[in-house]
Amino acid sequence: MSFEDRPSTGTKESRDGEIEDRPETSAGMQDSDTVQNPVSEKKGDGKRSKWKSGRKASSGRVLELQLASTWGDGDFIGMTGLQVLGATGQAVQLTEDQIDANPRDITVLDGYEQDIRLLSNLLSGTCITMSDSEMWLAPFEPGVANIMTLDLGEVTAVSGIRVWNYNKSAEDTCRGVKVIHAFLDGEQVSPAGGCLIRKAPGNSHFDFSQTVTFGPSLGGPVSSQSLAVEDESTRGLPTGFMFKLRLMSAWGDAFYIGLNGVELYNEHHNLLQPHLVSAFPESCNVLPDVKDDCRTPDKLINGVNDTFDGRDMWLAPILPEVVNEVYLVFERPVSISMVKLWNYAKTPNRGVKEFSLLVDDLLVFGGTLARADGEATGILPTCAPPVLPQTILFTEDPEMVHAEREFLIRPPTAAESVIRMVDEDNPHASDQQRGKPKRPAQAMRPTTSMPASSAIQGGRHFR
User: Fold this and answer.
1) How do residues 357-404 score in pLDDT, each as one tens digit?
2) Which residues are registered as beta bridge partners of 69?
3) Which residues 6+ apart lie within 8 Å of 285 measured at CB?
4) Would you state the pLDDT for residue 45?
5) Which residues partner with 324 through β-bridges?
6) Closest Cα to residue 360, out of 392, 323, 332?
7) Helices in 94-230 by DSSP H: which ranges?
8) Are residues 64 and 149 in contact, defined by beta-carbon separation less than 8 angstroms?
9) Do 280 and 324 contact (CB within 8 A), yes or no?
10) Which residues are within 8 A (CB) of 63 and not within 5 positions of it... i.e. 6 or more apart?
């Protein structure tokens, strides 16, 4: 495709019209991710790869990034922010004259000479944003890599990069970089297949940066994002970077919604530890009259789930025209065989009722979470029933099906004993469309507070 055939793009508004045949987000390699790079071919040096598992950080002066593919857009490629990481993971300080690209940015196109989506924006430090005036955008041709060159000024130890992908809107995240090949002083420091870059969320609810290490992760095993290859153990399982719970309603409370805990398990049924857990709204601390409430998103993955102690739970306000969401984000794509949820037990009517699970924005499950069974009340609070897990099962492993049979969350229309993935066009109808009354005025919201210093009753976790 020539530049003359390229569709127009605006700096403030999304493109007109619908995008047809948009490819789904998937953490795997496609034919379009394989590129012919005319810049490298002209050098004729047959660039060698020195990426090896367990090696130390490489040193060099010039870092070249080959941006091989996007998340679906065939005309433009972009990012919001970029950092080069030193030997200990610190950001290497760079100035505008130390970065170059081919094509440099969108200003190389006729009619876009005054466009503000410039290469220099990548170094501005404003990264958690949806304003494309803070982003970089350049023309892109599938099969030909865009080349970005960073001159570090002197020989520098480089352990990796940190990327904030293109985040103008949910629709425009398809312009983000998907695969990067990295070369330091002409030698490849990324895996032969390249590094898979996470698609941006299309919102600014959390820090969506991704750290891509070129060798051993800092203080741990190799964690470079090589392209995922499906095998027998992961076939049919949801796979991706970002797992999102959309919480559509609570069990009666119109002002607050919460959970005790969330656990994700990989294809081998081992517990996964997310790189980041976040929520929107984040917690009760977003309310003007609340400060230092300890029911924050990190409590969802602290492992204390069978509890009535609010200090080990997450709670957030239900706000007008906002769907509450919980994000569990990974640095590399993971496959899940099972999800376990513990509903909010301190005040059960604040627990989640209707919810859905999305993996990289693709719906994989929708259903109803049962209300927590009991509360810590009376003179013997330790006699309260346990807070049981509720399970979404994606595997058909007979042992797992048998072990979790008492805890399965069943989709509203399913009769099977094993939960299957579902895919609906519009799983998030409004309250009015669902026949529910409008939410009451925010002025009627009751106050709630849970300082971290509150006491615990009994041997179990109670509040």
Assistant:
1) 999 999 999 999 999 976 555 555 556 688 999 999 999 999 999 999
2) 179
3) 291, 292, 293, 296
4) 42
5) 247
6) 332
7) none
8) yes
9) yes
10) 84, 149, 150, 152, 158, 161, 182, 183, 184
* Per-residue DSSP letter, 310: G
In 78-165, alpha helices (H): none
Taken in order 90, 94, 98, 104, the sign of the CA dihedral is positive
d(CA 461, CA 463): 7
Extract the runs of DSSP E, i.e. beta strands, from 248-353. 256-265, 276-280, 314-317, 324-335, 338-343
Pick from 54-58, 200-204, 313-317: least confident: 54-58
**Cβ of 103: how many Cβ atoms within 10 Å?**
17
pTM, to two decimals: 0.78
Condensed to tens digits (0 to 9), the pLDDT of residues 223-243 reads: 344 444 556 667 889 999 999
CA distances from 85 to 62, 156, 236, 271 (A): 13, 10, 36, 29
> Cα–chain-centroid distance for residue 416?
31
What integer is the mean pLDDT of 38-45? 36
Question: How many Å apart are CA 362 and CA 238, to the nearest integer?
Answer: 9
Helix (H, G, I), strand (E, B) or coil at 247: strand
Output the DSSP codes for 385-434.
PP---EEEE----HHHHHHHTTTBPPPTT--SSS------S-----TTTT
